[in-house]
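Lab notebook, bench 4. The sequencing result for the construct came back, and we need a structural model before the next group meeting so we can plan mutations. Quick request posted to the team channel:

Model the 3D structure of this chain.
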Amino acid sequence: MPTDDWSKFWDLIKDIKIGMFTAFSNDGLLHSRPMATQNRADDRNDRLWFFMSRDSEPGLDLARNRSVSVAYADPRSGAYISVAGHAAVFEDAQTKKDLWQAWFPGGPEDPEVTLVSVAIEHVEYWTVDSNRMVQLVRHGAVRMD
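Done. Here's the predicted structure in token form:
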């Protein structure tokens, strides 16, 4: 069931701190890793934010292929969310400071820490109360190269 109600998406993930961030690795396989979503309550637009180590496997994966997926689950409420999009490194010092909630000991100024933006292109979610999949499609999503 297609919809344009993006507030439902943000409401579903607001209390889920960790998403499974999936990207294509060097071996051509999909690899998923837990990543903390960095969006604030006032930052609910067309992208998700994550911090990662520049030279980590996820960071290197993005250099090869920017297509990613992020999956969220909240079994207590019966909500399951899948996001597809394109990731890009976003090197803006002020945005890093504004979004900083990460555990990296060097803080947002650490040159090894990079901010990654995922431009949302498609969302699907399932909830117990709807008992069906709902699709949110954002055609023409802005991509950052």
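Strands lie at 2-3, 18-24, 30-36, 47-53, 67-74, 79-90, 113-127, 133-137.
Will bring this to the meeting.
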